[in-house]
């Protein structure tokens, strides 16, 4: 008598397993390397350190994916999930990067603390789900995309319009002569056009990796024009090990820790919806115990991220969408993808090559990537009842308004205590807090079952 194997647990032939795993890696690769590029360049790290951040991120991506998909006692949902750094953490980390007394080591301290926090609160997160109906999650995700658009636009322009240089111990601000040059704008536009052409005329797979192919096409053009240089690639080693605490021991500051813990709650709520949608796609029951294990893996991944010199982790929605598109439900496919990411993280030349891509090339892709985040939030909001419940309009309007304060007026909260600035300078967190409070005030809190159904529906919509 043979026991049938559930499609989620089916081990496919090795060639097919590796091909499908590589497809998952290609779909998430551009998003996976974007965050270390953003943070590394915001901190003005030298190119070799930015390259190391990329290697560390790829390595930790693979590690977190294996934890989530293979599963260990009490940890891992054992579904086809690819883990990557969440964009929700970028805004707060940029604020921390701008604070001289926090910096990179302060970011790592807050990430490690948030990971431990996530491990502890995983069993309770599903009870918070009623606080995050579609009107709240859609608004938060839309503001995340809008906030990140500033990064994409400045990339397309060639960096920041102004830069600061310390002369005789005094900081001086100068205009960036490379900003807004026609050649750079032309390269960014070329990347954008390539991506749009692939989306329109490419097949399903080519469409899925359009951002990555657009970046490659832009890099080729930039190298032909003499804008992209490969000196660092030539000097980088072929193989290297990602060691913990490469930049030094992490530092722990209260407000950044609180800020990152709030981000962790938002990220885990988003993961909850993804897991429920994935359960529907794969025809595997996802009960509270399975959700707890999956959310705990988010916490473990984030904790490992802080140790291995990278950032908070969550399940990547584009890979959840890929499961729905391909119909391949085996978690061993994403295990193979995690293994590929792990190997890529041990190849410094690959990281150096990614780091050498000019900002203008990334700018053309950033407009698509970050704009799609905002569009996903808008799509979630289409499930919200605005016609018969106009109070939902006020939830969105006021929350977006608060979320725009740090973006439009960075000095708005300058009179408030300095320790609160990392929290107040994150439009994403301001938006999240205001949206939760206003929704509870206007609409009350729905039941857990209703919230769970809404979360699954929202996640399914966001990944198709």
From TrEMBL:
Signal peptide: none annotated. It is a multi-pass membrane protein. It comes from the Bacteria. The keyword Cell membrane applies. GO terms for cellular component: plasma membrane. It is found in: Cell membrane. GO terms for molecular function: xanthine transmembrane transporter activity. InterPro entries: NCS2 (IPR006043), UacT-like (IPR017588), Xan_ur_permease (IPR006042). Keywords: Cell membrane, Membrane, Transmembrane, Transmembrane helix, Transport. The chain crosses the membrane at residues 20-39, 51-75, 102-124, 131-153, 178-199, 211-230, 254-278, 332-354, 360-381, 393-412, 424-442. NCBIfam families: ncs2, NCS2_1, pbuX. This is Purine permease. It comes from Tardiphaga robiniae. Belongs to the nucleobase:cation symporter-2 (NCS2) (TC 2.A.40) family.
């Amino acid at each position: 008598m043979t026991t049938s194997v559930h499609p989620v647990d089916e081990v496919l032939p090795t060639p097919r397993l590796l091909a499908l795993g590589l497809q998952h890696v290609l779909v998430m690769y551009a998003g996976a390397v974007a965050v270390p590029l953003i943070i590394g360049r915001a901190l003005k790290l030298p190119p070799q350190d930015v390259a190391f951040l990329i290697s560390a991120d790829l390595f930790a991506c693979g590690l977190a994916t294996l934890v989530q998909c293979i599963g260990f006692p009490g940890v891992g949902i054992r579904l086809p999930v690819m883990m990557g750094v969440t964009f929700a953490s970028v805004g707060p980390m940029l604020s921390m990067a701008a604070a001289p007394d926090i910096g990179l080591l302060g970011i790592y301290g807050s990430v490690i603390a948030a990971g431990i926090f996530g491990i502890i609160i995983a069993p309770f997160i599903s009870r918070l789900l009623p606080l995050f109906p579609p009107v709240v999650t859609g608004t938060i995700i839309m503001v995340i995309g809008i906030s990140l658009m500033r990064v994409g636009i400045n990339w397309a322009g060639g960096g920041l319009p102004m830069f600061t240089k310390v002369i005789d111990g005094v900081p001086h601000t100068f205009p960036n002569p490379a900003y807004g040059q026609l050649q750079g704008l032309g390269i960014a536009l070329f990347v954008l056009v390539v991506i749009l052409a692939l989306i329109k005329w490419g097949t399903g797979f080519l469409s899925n990796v359009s951002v990555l192919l657009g970046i490659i096409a832009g890099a080729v053009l930039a190298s032909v024009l003499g804008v992209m240089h490969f000196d660092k690639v030539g000097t980088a080693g072929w193989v290297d090990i990602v060691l913990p605490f490469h930049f030094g021991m992490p530092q722990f500051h209260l407000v950044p820790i609180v800020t990152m813990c709030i981000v962790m709650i938002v990220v885990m709520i988003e993961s909850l919806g993804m897991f429920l949608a994935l359960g529907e796609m794969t025809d595997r029951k996802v009960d509270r115990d399975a959700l707890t294990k999956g959310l705990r893996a988010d916490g473990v991944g984030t904790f490992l991220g802080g140790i291995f010199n990278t950032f908070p982790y969550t399940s990547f929605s584009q890979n959840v969408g890929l499961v729905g598109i391909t119909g391949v439900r085996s978690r061993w496919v994403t295990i193979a993808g995690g293994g590929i990411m792990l190997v890529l993280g041990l190849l410094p030349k690959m990281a150096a090559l990614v780091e050498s891509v000019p900002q203008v090339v990334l700018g053309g892709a950033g407009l698509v990537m970050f704009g799609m985040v905002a569009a996903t939030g808008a799509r979630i909001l289409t499930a919200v009842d605005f016609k018969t419940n106009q109070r939902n309009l006020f939830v969105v309007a006021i929350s977006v308004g608060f979320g725009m304060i740090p973006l439009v007026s960075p000095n708005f909260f300058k009179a408030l205590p300095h320790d609160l600035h990392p929290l107040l300078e994150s439009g994403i967190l301001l938006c999240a807090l205001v949206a939760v409070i206003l929704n509870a005030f206007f609409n009350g809190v729905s039941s857990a079952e209703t919230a769970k159904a809404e979360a699954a529906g929202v996640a399914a919509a966001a990944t198709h």
